[in-house]
Each structure stands twice: as structure tokens, then as C-alpha cells.
Design goal:
19% strand; single chain; AB_hydrolase_fold; Rossmann fold; hydrolase activity; alpha/beta
Length: 267
């Protein structure tokens, strides 16, 4: 079995239960998907259309401060899930290893949400879980939508998953080396860096969106990352900072996604 439906909890507001509350309020079904090495918490909602929109969250809170690793890295503010709630298409929120209440799993280690947050192990397991889901549900075309660090993972999954037709990133740190250097963070030596990889396959169109007031991942950092990766992509800058403003713009972004996908279907 690829996925197991799980009840959505609406109790006290830990990061995991806060995410579950947002999902429950939006009528999403909680799932547990099995990847190549980890289990992945996920949420699914049916909708109109043939494409599956897959949402990937930001890094959350890997660290409490510069010396202490968080026990639970789950995002305190589930931005990607809130955006997914506004989407009328069939959609899946795919969680990372050890996030959303799975931190105590035997395979989990803090390395997976710190230096190894974009590692081969993480990307391979998420890709496997998603591939099994789309085959079971018979989706032939996938739009990957990654917010912040989720955009890094979306890029790395798009390299491997043949059904991906469009990659959409929001405020994504696509050059992880430049991003850590900018902020004085520890280099993510166990992670893959999109800016150092080959260009994505021609089948994958790209839409990268930056926030004009984003001090965490400023527009120039995104554009430079795309230049160094040799990417042919659409880049938009919206009136947003790193965390706030995305929901206001999301209906227009969804319309842009639809236009790009309709263009891809043209003969």
C-alpha cells in the first residue's frame, strides 16, 4: 500500500497539529506515504483538472538558535499548506522525512533537517513517495510548487521525476552555498545545490517568484542562482517579504500556472 489515510488532529497547537488544523479546515485528507528510506506525512485534496499540484514546505525551524538543534523542525507557519488551500486543482502536500510528528521515527537523525536537509537521502525518499502516489492515483502530469527551501527540493525532484511538467518556486534559496554565505550560516555540506547542477530537462518549464521585500532570499540571489545554473525560466517579483503576502498573490500565480500549462499543451 502506498498511502494510509490518517485522522487529522485538531488539538493543542504544536507545529504538527497546527498544520493538521489548517488541513482539516480545508477539507484535506491526511496520508502517510512510504518513501525509499522514510515515511512522509502528506495531505491530499481532490479538485478540477488533470494535473496534480504538489506543494513542498520551507525548512521550518531546524535550529532553536545558532548552537541548539530543534527537536521538531516542522514549520510553525505552514505557508505552503495555506497556499494549497486556495488551489482548486487536485493537490498534494508532501512532507519531508521526520517532519509533522515523525521526528521520533527510528530512521530520523537531526542531520536530516540541518546539514542534510537537501541531501540525496531526503530527495530520493521524497521522489519515491511521490512517484508511488502519482502512479497509484494515475496522474500523468505534475506541477511542483516549492516554498523557500521547498523550492530547492522541488528542483531536485524535478530532475528525477518524468511526470513533472512545471516547476514553481517561491522565495527559494536555489544557490544554497551563496545563501548560507550571505547569512553566515554553516555550509550545508551534506546537501545538493541546484545552482551547481546541470540544467533541468527541457520538459520542465520553470516559474520562479521572488519577494521584493525579502531579506532572507532577495530577488538578486534567485536571479544569480538561475544564471549560474544556466536555466531558461520565467522570473517574477511580487510585493511580498519572505513570509508574508503570498496568499494575497496566490490567485494570480495560479492563473499564471494555468496559462503556462495550457501553452505546454499546444501542438
Amino acid at each position: 500500500m502506498v498511502g494510509i489515510a490518517i485522522p487529522v488532529i485538531t488539538g493543542c497547537a504544536s507545529p504538527a497539529t497546527k498544520t493538521e488544523r489548517v488541513a482539516a479546515d480545508s477539507g484535506m485528507t491526511g496520508l502517510l506515504l512510504v518513501g525509499s528510506a522514510f515515511s512522509h506525512s502528506a495531505f491530499f485534496a481532490e479538485g478540477r483538472g488533470d494535473d496534480l499540484h504538489v506543494y513542498l514546505s520551507g525548512d521550518g525551524s531546524p535550529w532553536i538558535d545558532e548552537h541548539r538543534i530543534a527537536k521538531d523542525p516542522t514549520p510553525r507557519n505552514p505557508v505552503a499548506l495555506r497556499l494549497m488551500a486556495l488551489d482548486p486543482r487536485p493537490r498534494l502536500y508532501l512532507g519531508r522525512p521526520c517532519y509533522h510528528g515523525l521526528t521520533d521515527s527510528s530512521a530520523c537523525d537531526p542531520w536530516l533537517w540541518t546539514n542534510g536537509r537537501y541531501s540525496e537521502e531526503v530527495v530520493a525518499s521524497m521522489t519515491h513517495a511521490l512517484e508511488e502516489f502519482i502512479q497509484q492515483q494515475d496522474f500523468r502530469n505534475v506541477v511542483l510548487i516549492g516554498y523557500s527551501g521547498g523550492g530547492v527540493l522541488a528542483w531536485l525532484i524535478a530532475e528525477r521525476l518524468e511526470q513533472v511538467r512545471l516547476l514553481v518556486t517561491l522565495a527559494a534559496n536555489l544557490d544554497t552555498d551563496a545563501w548560507t554565505a550571505r547569512h553566515g550560516y554553516t555550509p550545508l555540506l551534506g546537501s545538493l545545490n541546484p545552482a551547481k547542477r546541470a540544467a533541468l530537462p527541457a520538459r520542465v518549464r520553470q516559474l520562479h517568484i521572488a519577494g521584493e521585500r525579502d531579506a532572507n532570499v532577495p530577488p538578486a540571489l534567485i536571479q544569480t542562482a538561475l544564471n549560474s545554473a544556466g536555466s531558461q525560466a520565467i522570473v517574477q517579483v511580487l510585493a511580498s517579504d519572505h513570509r508574508c503576502g503570498w496568499q494575497d498573490h496566490w490567485p494570480s500565480v495560479l492563473r499564471a500556472i494555468s496559462r503556462i500549462r495550457e501553452g505546454q499543451r499546444d501542438p
